[in-house]
Structure formats: structure tokens, C-alpha cells
Write a structure and sequence with these properties.
By secondary structure, the chain is mostly helical. The chain has one helix and no strands. The termini are far apart.
Length: 72
């Protein structure tokens, strides 16, 4: 009986270790996915900011061309 008890204990340890490895792998994948999402959001925000700045500068240039002060 002792031999079967040891075998069962080892099997349980192996199952627990496999489960732990799976949990760690899942966590690592989640962290990686979150980092990718943050990076993509930052890139989209930077692109939107650059577009807004470009449009603001274009509008400012158009306003200055139409302004009577520009002819002075």
C-alpha cells in the first residue's frame, strides 16, 4: 500500500505542477497581450495627436492668410 500511496502522491504533485505551469503561462500571455494593447493605444493616440496638430497648423495658416493683419 505504501508504494501505491507514493505513486498517487507523485501523480498529484505532477498534476499540481502542470496546473501551476499552465496558470503561469496564461498569466504571461495576459501580461503580453496587455502590453501590446497599451502600445497600440499609445500609437493610435500619438497618430491622432499628430493629425490634430497638423490640422490646427493648417487652419492657423489659413486664418492668417485671410486676416487683414497679414497684409499690414
Amino acid at each position: 500500500m505504501a508504494a501505491s500511496g507514493v505513486s498517487e502522491e507523485e501523480s498529484e504533485k505532477a498534476l499540481l505542477l502542470d496546473e501551476l505551469i499552465e496558470l503561469v503561462d496564461d498569466h504571461n500571455e495576459s501580461v503580453c497581450a496587455a502590453k501590446v494593447a497599451v502600445t497600440l493605444k499609445r500609437q493610435r493616440d500619438e497618430e491622432a495627436s499628430a493629425t490634430a496638430r497638423r490640422l490646427a497648423m493648417e487652419t492657423l495658416g489659413e486664418d492668417q492668410e485671410r486676416s487683414p493683419k497679414a497684409n499690414v
